[in-house]
Amino acid sequence: MTNKIILAGFGGQGILFLGKKLATAGMDKDLNVTWLPSYGPEQRGGTCNCSVILSDTDISSPIIGSPDTLVAFNIQSYDKFMPRITPGGRLFADSTLIDKRSDRNDIESFFVPATQMANDLGSPKLVNVIMLGFVIKHTGLFDRDYIRGVLTDSLPASKAALREANGRAFDAGYGYEG
Amino acid sequence: MIVYKRPKALSQVPMHYCPGCTHGIVHRLVAEVIDELGIEGDTIGIAPVGCAVFAYNYFECDFIEASHGRAPAVATGVKRTHPDKIVFTYQGDGDLAAIGTAETVHASARGENITIIFINNTNYGMTGGQMAPTTMPGQVTTTSPYGRQKLIQGNPIHVCEMLSTLDGVAYAERVAVNNVRNVRAAKKAIKKAFQNQIDKKGLSIVEVLSTCPTNWGMSPTDALKFVDEKMIPFYPLGVYVDRNAMGGDQDDK
Amino acid sequence: MAKVLIKGNEAVAEAAIRSGCRYYFGYPITPQTEIAEYMAKKMPTVGGLCLQAESEVAAINMVYGAAASGVRVMTSSSSPGISLKSEGVSYIVGCDLPCVILNVQRGGPGLGGIQPAQSDYYQATKALGHGDMHLFVLAPSSVQEMAQLTADAFGIADKYRMPVLILADGALGQMMEPVDFDALHFTPEPEKPWAANGHGGKRKKNIHTSLFLKPEELESNILERAKKYEQVDKNEIRYENYLCDDADIVIVSFGITARISKAAVNEARARGIKAGLLRPITLSPFPSPELLRLADTASAFLSVELNMGQMVNDVRLAVQCRRPVEFFGRTGGSLPSSEDVLEQIIKISGGLK
Prior knowledge:
Chain B is of the alpha/beta class. Chain B has helices at 23-37, 55-58, 71-81, 93-99, 101-110, 150-153, 159-163, 180-198, 213-216, 220-234, and strands at residues 43-47, 62-65, 86-92, 115-120, 123-124, 130-131, 169-176, 203-209, 238-242.
């Protein structure tokens, strides 16, 4: 079983962090994992993406041509990566920033107004965590409590408020019924 | 009784330098200073590419032969890994001020706690008298056969003046070895440049105006005269910076 | 300790520090800059030094000075910067000094790109510097191996008194994978009586020079070094043999492409094609004897690289023209997929009797 996930959006949306959480969660479950960021001058244009592979067999290449899961945080990423999703794959998109709807009927599409929800929670920076909850609910990549623990346990006890905010954002994404 | 004898730090081997060349004098001065400071066992010298490429054969301390111009970088590598040892480079004008300008300027800017002995004889001696960054306006060399012209070969570099603008340089002095008085002053400067390193003051450079009778096409005596009459007016002797004298140690801020 | 998720570049830096390397001289260049950043952060906490040089040229010469004075030292760069280092590398070889150099390759020539490539294979294995010389070249293919081969590199460099080059690429440098640092094994640093670190009045002076003006002296110096290379060839060849012994088609591939090729081998086997992968871990010394051995049983070889065909010529030399050696590669920063490699295997197997 191999999951090839591309997470893409703007710098500052916590994309690389989100990818690392998924990879760490996989590592702690003894899966083979790779995490590869986009690097280079395009980062200065504001876009940012990373590729995460989770597998119970050896991972050949960390580079993903066709993701089976795309998590898109902006319209540029949606336009760039949506056509590349493998048939039968899944699209997760922030509907606050992406007003397009795919006409592909060979993939499953899930939309969540993550940016709006983050603003409503008063934590605009937690858009990635909301998305994580939402993705976990619809993919079952990891057990809900397990990944929620990976997310919050990495924060020191001194940051209890942030822990709590993260937990709340995760739950909001997980509980979102679109 | 005054006994004139070979300094202990100077090896007992014949030197390859041309008759009348002042490299031998400068080598001797460096060796005398090493003896007087009692640092031979702690000293690592860095030889350049150029006439002094064989310097490692002439000194009794440990030595590393650097690639052309990179002596300050090699010295940085030694000094940073052995801060309590004494590290000096011995470089010519092509090595230090042309191909190695970046290494010279940045070792100076960083204030590497090393000593640089810089031989300025206004040409590339080893390769047969080509134009150097220190070749003076109008001076004839094999690659400036009509005399160095501003619009063609550009301007020479005044190394001490340039380096004295950098905060990391503790001490920069230009000396000459064309007469007894100047040789004595040169030794004093070289000793100070080593003492500064012992005292962890930062980078010290002594620029020595030297002769190259072979490539200048002069007798040794005329070459000494050339230093006096042509070089010193263009490259004035003196202390260009002495941060210790100017108000104490460099701070670490 | 549990595994940690870490970038290949950072894994090299951490492994170097754990190997006793306390000195790093470098210059920023994508895609390896994390090493300098990691070193800058960590070295002061272990009593070491990370110094950002004014150029790659200066950095390698700082390494030269540090190595000559007898400490474990390393530098790193990516392709264009490695070209700049080649001068200093030649001097380091000429003085028989140990150091570790990492090339996180990107596409070239010139400024090229910043995506992964293996187009510096020739430079690394044949000519990283002028003169009658070569380096020891290691080729990791995972982040764990980036760490282990870094640790090995220091031991090999000290043992043979020669520079060891770790030839990685942008993907291996930038990707994160789990690494178990506690599983690493290290070689203790030997005494270095040859170091130019001040004779202290206790020994004769040590000189490090690569200058020998008399032809007979230079020749004998090179011949001495050649004996060392012979020992290296005899003792240090490393490779992974994956399903090669009954393989009709042996893929030869190193680094990141070896992983892709391995997946293709598995897919080919699932289709009944007997494929195998010979992955050189040392590129210099090259596993020629093993390839020659496999030429007795395999029908064809396929070299898969991120360039226009460089290692393929070493494979051809190794098998001494006994079997056809094909090439497949992508270049300029593109990577093949395992399907691309599989297609090549199928093509070759179709041509086999």
